[in-house]
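Today's session is about reading a structure prediction critically. Students often jump straight to the picture, but the first step is always the sequence itself: look for stretches that repeat, for charged clusters, for runs of hydrophobic residues. Only then move on to the predicted structure, which in these notes is written as discrete structure tokens rather than atom positions. Here is the chain we will use throughout the hour.
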Amino acid sequence: MSSPSSKPILRFAPSPNGRLHLGHAYSALYTWQAAARLGGTALLRMEDTDPERCKPEFAQAIVDDLHWLGLDWPQPIMVQSQRFPIYAEAANQLRDADLLYPCFCSRSEIATKAKGTDPDGAPLYPGTCRHMSRSEQIERLQRGDPVQFRLDTASAITCTGLLTFTAIGPLVTDRPQIRYARPERWGDVVLQRKGTPTSYHLSVVVDDAAQGVTHVTRGRDMEPATDFHVLLQFLLGLPSPIYNFHRLILDAEGRKLSKSKGSPTLASLRDAGRTPQDIRQELGF
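Below is the predicted structure for this chain, in token form.
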């Protein structure tokens, strides 16, 4: 873990699985503005744990787009794909506490048995494999069945008591508020998959602690995930940053901008003649 710093540290952590769009630009500009208001530093981190979708050329494009917007950051850039052993160690800490268990359910099986959804709208895992016998777990693991490892969230919560986190308003210098975390609404979240020793939830809390991040700026759509991150921070003995949730940039239909939906990229806007000043003005910076 980084040594304590007297100055605030923030981070912008995109996934290099496509080109940045206006939503990413807003989040980056917001983070750098927040760092300036707090008298701190903004870091860039590459969250590239998905080898199928994340590509080096996209990582370089992110750097180019951010520099085009006039942003800079300390070197080196943290790259998550270089830190898999560290995430595996954190997962083993949960495993040693008997809080991580193998799950062999397919997505279709989960969808069929689920009785609700998590905050992201995905089928809530019904706990099918939670009470599988140790002998059956070993047999299926040795057989090489497709597996993922889930946190036993109910058991984890019994270890924590009431969980809270600190949030601040849009100006980031606003008076902090204490909020209650509700990780139970996420159910038993996947923290590892076969061949990938981490998930977004696990790596983000480990890396925020490693980089000494004091303030996390994220879109309002990520606010529910904070509940689960606070739980992991407690279980792993990691500090919990102060959180700040910013507005989302929406398209003409009122939907959040998305790479998968083909939202216009910064590169395409640049090619069409838009300047960094145009982008900043449109986004309110």
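Discussion point for the tutorial: The mean pLDDT is 95.
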